[in-house]
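Final report, closing paragraph on structural work. Over the funding period we assembled a curated collection of sequence-structure pairs, and we close with a single example.
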Amino acid sequence: MSDETTPSAQLTAGGESPAVRLPLRDRRSLGGVVNALRDYVIVLSVAVVFLVLTFSSDVFLTSTNLLNVLEQVAPVGIIAIALTYVLIAGEFDISAGAIAAFTGVVAAKLANSIGPWEGLILGVLAATGIGLLNGLLIAYGGINSFVCTLAVGLMVAGVAVLITKGFLLTVPGDTFATLGTSELLGVKYSVWLLVAIVVLFAFVLHRTTFGRWLYAVGGNLEAARLSGINTKMVKVSAFAISGLAAGLAGAIIASRTSQGQAGDGISTVLFAFAAVVVGGTSVQGGRGAVWRTVFGLLLLALIGNGFNLLSVEPIYQQIVQGAIILAAVAADALSRRQAA
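Its predicted structure, as stored:
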């Protein structure tokens, strides 16, 4: 008898007769189909939305509008790319939005005392340090990543309020605004930075040992540990990278307005998290890709831009985005069940 089917004389662990179950070969085939759909439906979705908006709005398919969309999503896109690493490693980072806001506060505060670029650099370094702290607490302290990053995010937001005393920190002069407002070949620096991060992170994830370690740790933590991978350091590195990305995003936002403003950044991190999940990265770890996150980001950004151009009520945008996120998570759960 083939070992790919369950013997009919036995029952499953839950008491279910194997006669009602698909043969293992068929279940794997179905899982492969679901995975293929999950991989490429996001590409089709972006193409469909793009075509619909092209024929629905005269303003949509213009360089001004498209570049504006990319500029607006650049900071959250940078955070989303780094969150891809964290989710692939099987963890969550809810603090990224608060860290981004904190970076802007630190950068603005220091820019007024030691210099604009010095303030921005030290703000990004502070954000990286917070990300590193997250990783150490989670990997070596054994704290649940959702709870840990939520708590750290609340503390970081509180410290930012103490620094600002509830006011905006304004930085005079044009130097501080260079990162967020200047252009190269007609494209904002923030967009170029997003493109560079996408290329770099994709290369690291798919062409380096560290990338393979991320997949191994998120796919099966114990097996990765037994194979000799330093699983704790992999997780610490993923959170440090997430902190760095949040810092860069915060620096762009602060530079764009020449202001530092305290906040919890919940809307920022939720949008970034949604882009990662909609792109097809698994919330259970071990699966994901940078290109998927890019398409997830584009889909949500195009939907938002289209709703604005077509003057659709914002509440409907939230409903549509929520439904897309739910569908993406459901597809991931289905693919895992069929592959089991």
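The first strand starts at residue 169 and ends at 170. The chain has a mean pLDDT of 85. We thank the funder for supporting this effort.
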